[in-house]
Amino acid sequence: MKSSENLFFENKNYHLYHLSDLNILVIEAKGLIQLEPAKEAWLKALDKAVEFNITKWIVDGTSIEIINPKANEWIVNEFFPLTVQKMTMKEKRLTANILPPRFYAEMNAKEVINKKLEHDASANKNEIQRDIRYFQNFDEAYDWIANYPDTDDQ
To answer: Is domain 7-146 in CATH 3.90.1720.10, yes or no?
Structure first.
């Protein structure tokens, strides 16, 4: 689980954890998400994912108040193409999204996730296998991703 020992990055909007026992990347976002802290955190997360071949991500948005539209634009237009370029592993990618309780933040998060799916489909002609699920709390998300069957026929 998350602890100070597996925290590898933090700024005013993000805490990033690498749960090395199951090779899970956890991204906790909080507050009023601004462009520069978002860029810094997501690029650090991508570097860690590439370094450790991480295909299991938990994105915890329960403490997000609102996301600056410029941060969303950067994620969709720049970060997503960069992930396709840098993450060349063929394993199925799992993402557990813990949605913010605020209505507009939740809708915003779902819109970004849908853009990611669209991007993957157009950039890779559906070669990326991805399973994205939504959760209300960290324990549910962690349980799903930690117990996901590691078989190729899923």
So the answer is: no
Residue among 75, 78, 1 nearest 38 (CA): 75
CA distance 101 to 152: 34
Residues 6+ apart with CB under 8 A from 25: 16, 17, 18, 19, 45, 48, 49, 54, 56, 57, 58
Q: How far apart are CA 134 and CA 140, in angstroms?
A: 9
Burial 45-62 (b: 16+ CB within 10 A, else e): bbebbeeeebbbbbbbbb
Per residue in 98-127, pLDDT tens? 987 765 455 555 565 655 555 555 555 445
Q: Using alpha carbons only, what angle is made at residue 129 by residues 16 and 48, rounded to the nearest 5 degrees?
A: 25
Q: Which residues pair with 29 in a beta bridge?
A: 14
- Residue 26: how many CB atoms within 10 A of its CB? 25
Alpha helices in the chain (DSSP H): 35-52, 69-74, 80-86, 103-124, 138-146
Q: What is the pLDDT of residues 38-56, one digit of tens each?
A: 999 999 999 999 999 999 9
